[in-house]
Structures are given as structure tokens and as C-alpha cells.
Design brief:
single chain, mainly beta, ATP Synthase, domain 1, four-stranded antiparallel beta sheet
Length: 85
């Protein structure tokens, strides 16, 4: 696996602005059917998100964001999350 394949490019945006933009190892999302995790090389997906917590990991540290709902698109290691907070 190439070095670039091991990293996700995550953007979390809300109507208020960009909440986070950067490289992460993984991101856990509250899907409307169930929570799911996105890792590098994840298949392309578009999903709605329910109220819950978005958690992303960078090395040994993880950060969480409470959301009221939203949508996510995953494509080619780019994860774009549009949320209401």
C-alpha cells in the first residue's frame, strides 16, 4: 500500500463554517441505520447521518463532534461530511 493510501482527507463542514479539515487515520459516523467506520481505501459511499457523534482519529488521539444530523460522501480516500451542529 502506498503511503497516500493509508490516510483519509477529512472535511467536516456545517452552515457555520469548516469545523475540521485535515488528514486522519479513521472516522466513525452515526449513520441513520447504524454507526459505521471509514478507513483508508473504503468503497465509495453517500450516506445520511443521524443525531450522534462523529469521531476521527489522528495517531493516538481522537476527537469527537456532536451533530444533529447530516450527510457524508466517501470517494478515493476523501471524506466530506456536511453536518448540522
Amino acid at each position: 500500500m502506498a503511503e497516500n493510501d493509508a490516510i483519509l482527507n477529512l472535511t467536516i463542514a456545517s452552515p457555520e463554517g469548516i469545523l475540521f479539515q485535515g488528514k486522519v487515520d479513521s472516522v466513525k459516523l452515526p449513520g441513520t441505520k447504524s454507526a459505521f467506520m471509514v478507513l483508508p481505501l473504503h468503497a465509495p459511499i453517500i450516506s445520511s447521518l443521524s443525531k450522534g457523534i462523529v469521531t476521527y482519529a489522528q495517531g493516538n488521539e481522537s476527537t469527537s463532534v456532536d451533530i444533529k444530523g447530516g450527510f457524508v460522501q466517501v470517494k478515493s480516500n476523501d471524506v466530506s461530511v456536511c453536518v448540522e451542529i
